[in-house]
Amino acid sequence: MAASAEAPTTSNAPESPNVSGTQHVTQHVTHGFGPVWDRNSRVLVLGSMPSPKSREAAFYYAFRANRFWPVMAALFDDPSPVPERFPDTAERMAKLTEARRAFALRHHIALWDVIASCDIVGASDASIRNAVANDLASVIRPSEIRHVFTTGAKAAQLYRRLCLPQLTEAGFDLPMTALPSTSPANARMRLPQLIEAYRPILAAATDV
Hints:
Helix content: 25-40%
Structural class: alpha/beta
Distance between the termini: 26 Å
Strand content: 15-25%
Radius of gyration: 17 Å
Largest sheet: 4 strands, antiparallel
């Protein structure tokens, strides 16, 4: 029941300097691919906006240095979403994507992002402007989702500001747990720390 993928669209906006003074291009970006979920999903895991690598792969947490999938593999004692060697062809990447999709559904995990479109510089959450939220109720209503988890501070902030009012208006009152980012930018947290921080997903997805 995952939504079909669409090609991500971008359009150049005025350049925005980073802290070092180097010019980087701000782009208006649409999400580009749909959520992963089915009627048996119990938890909804939300990032902010897919990174350029994730938009390229049309799937979640596709950047090879992101630790989301190693964390999930360790929590659920299921190595299927973590390849021995990272794919070096489009065909192998497609197979890994399908293995990760199957993993999420098998373990009752729905995946999406808070944002449907925004202005952003590269993968910098701090640069996000003009964010438009996804319609989370569209996957919560027909599923068994009873707990929302956000990955990273920006996802939590935007969820509270953009999504929570919409869900409240729609009659949903779900607990939300803010989790740390698995991005390599969050270098202060090692893999064992992230696994421990993400343990509530295991409990919520398996009723442990």
